[in-house]
Amino acid sequence: MSRQSNRTTDSKKMNSELFTLTYGALVTQLCKDYENDEEVNKQLDKMGYNIGVRLIEDFLARSSIGRCQDFRETADVIAKVAFKMYLGITPSVTNWSPAGDEFSLILESNPLVDFVELPDNHSTLIYSNLLCGVLRGALEMVQMAVDVKFVQDTLRGDNVTEIRMKFIKRIEENLPAGDE
Amino acid sequence: MADDALFEFLHMEIVSHIYKEQQSGKGEMDNKDRAVCVSVLEGMGFRVGQGLIERLTRDSPSFKDELDIMKFICKDFWTKVFRRQVDNLRTNHQGTYVLQDNKFSMLTQLSSGKQYLDQAPKYLAFSCGVVRGALSNLGMESVVTAEVSVMPSCKFQVVIQKL
Questions:
Q1: What parts of the sequence cross the membrane (chain A) (predicted)?
Q2: Which residue ranges form the domains of chain B, and what is each CATH number?
């Protein structure tokens, strides 16, 4: 009954499918609950943010990455360590702005969109918008305010999926009043 | 391939979101609100369970009987979805099954013991739906409920609906 071969690959793939299918169920539910795509995009971003602020701790605990020296290093860590660890893909980091405060992540494949097609009446839906929120929330916890958005999306007909990340400012560490 | 932790974070956030949305505007949640939340989560789980079982049993031969299916759920399906096998399967041989998982993956992060016991049902609704969806695609309509007395141990009760 149980297949012996490729047990590990199967198990990892199944978990990927569990995540992908659950994400799909979430987006479907949000589309039902909210009137328009804009609202759904916002909710996905908000939920992503909530996940990101917790995910960063998991990430730091498991990757033993130290503090990044600059935004370039941050970009590399995000692409080569974080994306690899959580989604099993390694996007490429490109299109740096001259000031070094903006870059793009190019994803050849996106596990969130396996088996997914956007129906015509949802052309402005940013299906994977959760990712933007996750990145934003996670970086905020390490004192970086960033702006994250999708500029290309394979679901909407583009060749690749491109996420643009812009460094806004360093967040001062605010200790709660009364703390030493 | 997506990491396990990602699913857990996503699941927790989904539960949190559904309850927050239902509560918005009102002070306290009443039982009707809670029932709506559980029902939404269970419905989401149902679709996921249907999809998962389809992928998992694509190449498998067909099952001999009901018990065969339940054993598959307890071993292969549980391993793939909840990363361990069911510890104990009991049945009255009349369509009711009790699946006991002593370290249920959705509960291990919550507590071990009685703390947060009242919160546990929120985190079980989705999983009940997953099991019900899987069984549905295997041709068995059922009612799946879960009960917890000491975390993270959990008992799922499956009652097969005879048509």
A1: none
A2: 4-160 (3.30.1380.20)
pLDDT tens, position by position, B79-125? 989 999 999 999 999 999 999 999 998 888 887 888 888 888 999 99
**CB-count exposure of residue A29 (10 Å: 0-12, 13-18, 19+):** buried
Any domain includes A53? yes
Q: Touching check for A23 and chain B: CB below 8 Å?
A: yes
| Six-digit token string for A78 | 């995000």
Could you say which of A18, A43, A86 has the minimum Cβ distance to residue B52?
A18
Task: Return the sign of the alpha-carbon dihedral for residues A54, A58, A61, A67.
Answer: negative
Instruction: Give me the residues paired with residue B162 across strands.
Output: none
ipTM associated with this complex? 0.91
Give the chain B residue nearest A85 (alpha carbons).
B3
Nearest CA in chain B to A30: B18
What is the CATH classification number for the domain harbouring A55? 3.30.1380.20
Which residue of B lies nearest to A59 if distances are taken between CA atoms?
Answer: B5
Domain that holds residue A78: 38-116+124-170
Whole-prediction pTM: 0.89
Q: CB-based contact (8 Å) between B150 and chain A?
A: no
Is residue A180 included in any domain, yes or no? no
- pLDDT for B1-10, tens place per residue? 678 889 999 9
Is A71 inside a domain boundary?
Answer: yes
Kindly state the average pLDDT of the residues A118-135: 93
